[in-house]
Amino acid sequence: GENVEQHPSTLSVQEGDSAVIKCTYSDSASNYFPWYKQELGKGPQLIIDIRSNVGEKKDQRIAVTLNKTAKHFSLHITETQPEDSAVYFCAASINNQGGKLIFGQGTELSVKP
Amino acid sequence: GAVVSQHPSWVICKSGTSVKIECRSLDFQATTMFWYRQFPKQSLMLMATSNEGSKATYEQGVEKDKFLINHASLTLSTLTVTSAHPEDSSFYICSARKREGGTDTQYFGPGTRLTVL
What we know:
- The structure holds 2 protein chains of 2 kinds.
- In chain A, 0% of the residues lie in helices and 54% in strands.
- Chain A is mainly beta.
- In chain A, the strands form 2 sheets. In chain A, strands 2, 4, 5, 9, 10 and 11 form a 6-stranded mixed β-sheet that branches. Chain A has a 5-stranded antiparallel β-sheet with strand order 1-3-8-7-6, with no helix packed on it.
- Chain B has strands at 4-7, 10-13, 19-25, 32-38, 45-51, 57-58, 67-73, 76-81, 90-100, 103-108, 112-116.
- In chain B, the strands form 2 sheets. In chain B, strands 2, 4, 5, 6, 9, 10 and 11 form a 7-stranded mixed β-sheet that branches. A 4-stranded antiparallel β-sheet of chain B has the order 1-3-8-7, with no helix packed on it.
- The termini of chain B are far apart.
- Chain A binds chain B through residues 32, 34, 36, 41-46, 49, 51, 89, 95, 98-101, 103-106, and chain B through 4, 6, 32, 34, 42-44, 46, 49, 93, 95, 97, 103-111, 113.
C-alpha cells in the first residue's frame, strides 16, 4: 500500500524567512496531494492541494510543487509569520479509489519573531 | 464553503461506559466520511471509512464491535466508543469528503478529546 514519508519532523525559522517541508510517496498511482495545518487541540485545516496533472500551485505565501517522476512533493511557505507556527501534514491518495488519505508523520514548524 | 462540525468537543467518561461522537457536514452533502484517532505528537491514524446507507469499512486492527459507526444521512456520521477504557483516551477527528467536478476533497472537523477515567 501507499506510504508517505515527511521531513523534517521539526523546523524552526525566523520570522520572514522561508520554510520548506518535503514528502515522498511510494504508490505511483497516487494522484492527489493535500497539505493540512493543525494547530494545537484543533482539527487539520486544508491549506493547499495539488493534483497530478499540474506541477506547481500557489496561493499567496504558500506554494506546493509536485515531481511525479521522483514521487515527491513539497510545501513552500514564504515570508513566514508567527501565526504560521503549527504542525503541517502532507498526504497522498488515489482519488478515484474512495479518497482514503495516507498521511505523513507531520512537521512541527516554529516561526520565531 | 466546506464546514465540518463535531460534537462534543471534549468528553470525560468512566471506564466501561459508551460515548457517542457526532460528525456533521454543515454546508455540503457527504456520502463518505472518515474517522481518525490521533495520539499526542503523532500523525492521524485512519480508523474507518463511513459510507452513507451501508456498513463502515474498518482499517486493519480496529475493532468494529468496539467502535460502532453509523452514517444515517448525507450530513451525519456517528462514532460510538463502546465499553471505553483508559487506553481509548485520544483525540478523535472526523473528515467529510466533498465531491466537486469529479474530484474529491476532504475537510476535517475540529476533533473530540476523549478522556476515559
